[in-house]
Specification:
108 residues, alpha/beta, three-stranded parallel beta sheet
Length: 108
């Protein structure tokens, strides 16, 4: 029986760990990249962390490549400030629309 108890405890820890990253914070970004300045981050891979809130991702204004696959993201609004973004992976999320903000700006 100890094995089944151990398995249940592991599953509970995994579930708790998943919710640790429900929101992107400056501390999370700094720990994942080793950068102290969010503006210095050019590439970011945050796959399968249970993220549902993009939080301060918009402060990474020089971000060029972003992988957020396998999370629980529903809103893309915080990505609107990432003007240098070239590659974006949002597969396996809960996105229902591609609206980045409420106003539309078209440039010729």
């Amino acid at each position: 029986m100890p094995n089944s108890e151990y398995t249940r405890m592991d599953a509970k820890k995994d579930k708790e760990h998943e919710t640790d990253f429900a929101k992107i914070t400056a501390a999370l970004l700094k720990s994942k990249t080793g950068e102290f300045d969010l503006e210095s981050i050019l590439y970011l891979k945050l796959r399968g962390l249970g993220i549902c809130d993009l939080g301060c991702i918009g402060e990474c204004i020089n971000l060029e490549r972003l992988d957020l696959s396998g999370n629980n993201i529903t809103s893309l609004i915080p990505l609107a400030s990432l003007k240098l973004l070239l590659v974006l992976n949002l597969s396996a999320n809960r996105i229902t629309n591609l609206v980045l903000n409420t106003c539309t700006v078209c440039t010729p």
